[in-house]
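Subject: sequence -> structure tokens, single chain

Hey, anyone have a minute? Need the predicted structure for the following. Not urgent.
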Amino acid sequence: MNTAIKTRYLTIGLILACAVPAFAAEDPALNKDLTSVIALLGMPCGQVVSAIKKGESDHIATCSDGNRYRVFMNAQGRVVAEKQ
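Reply:
Had a minute. Here:
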């Protein structure tokens, strides 16, 4: 295998090795906060097991019972959870 091809594979491997943990990282504090918000809004959830950040105050939360909610701040400054 020539050196240029080895270098490309090594570069791609390094990029993937650094990128995958960033996508897989979960924030337990965020999951706990989203669980509390959803419960306070009276929606069934159990516990948030994963969350995807969509914006500054906008997340998609997946619950242990299978429900998914978009939790965000509306134009009036209130936190809202919409079932997905």
